[in-house]
């Protein structure tokens, strides 16, 4: 009987993660995500969040690009509070959502994301944070995986400044670029 119940639960779980809409509904918002952490994790995330709230965090040019974004988008983000890259980048995702009311965010666990993200994006492993950028019809238009492109393509100094939380605007810029490319296609 127990094995039958376990098999049924696994089947139901597999069914839950086969579409973006279900994952969005399973997800939590930013404040709920923060509450999942321990005190140290929450303090780290709040320090990064404070950086996104400073005057001059984003260039005037990037702010203008955000204001000109057209259409509704959802960031379906696989993230965990134990992950340092998540503690850096999720506040930057939230900053974008704050500035662009038509960009929403839903945060899920890596386990919740794994099956669908592997199928949809052809990744072997879901590195976090992994933001699936979805259009209004919930079609994927791009991704942000783990770190901004400037860091992935950068040198040791770039990585060091990222780890100090000095490249959060690059995260916002990467997502804005994906949305702009989608609008132009």
Automatic annotation (TrEMBL):
Q: Name one Pfam family in it.
A: Thioredoxin_9
Q: What is this protein called?
A: Thioredoxin family protein
Please spell out the taxonomic lineage of the organism that makes this protein. Answer: Bacteria, Pseudomonadati, Pseudomonadota, Gammaproteobacteria, Enterobacterales
Q: Which organism is it from?
A: Pantoea coffeiphila
Cross-referenced InterPro entries, in alphabetical order? Thioredoxin-like_sf
């Amino acid at each position: 009987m127990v094995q039958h119940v376990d098999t049924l639960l696994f089947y139901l779980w597999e069914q839950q993660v086969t579409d973006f809409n279900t994952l969005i509904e399973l997800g939590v918002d930013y404040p709920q995500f923060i509450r999942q952490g321990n005190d140290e994790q929450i303090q780290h995330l709040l320090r990064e969040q404070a950086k996104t709230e400073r005057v001059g965090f984003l260039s005037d040019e990037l702010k203008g690009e955000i204001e000109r974004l057209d259409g509704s988008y959802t960031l379906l983000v696989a993230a965990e509070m134990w992950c340092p890259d998540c503690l850096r980048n999720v506040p930057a995702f939230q900053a974008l959502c704050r500035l662009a009311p038509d960009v929403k965010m839903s945060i899920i666990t890596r386990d919740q994301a794994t099956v669908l993200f592997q199928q949809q994006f052809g990744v072997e492993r879901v590195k976090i944070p992994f933001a699936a950028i979805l259009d209004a019809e919930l079609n994927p238009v791009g991704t942000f995986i783990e770190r901004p492109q400037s860091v992935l393509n950068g040198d040791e100094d770039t990585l060091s400044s990222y780890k100090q939380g000095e490249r959060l605007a690059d995260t916002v810029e990467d997502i804005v670029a994906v949305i702009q490319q989608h609008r132009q296609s």
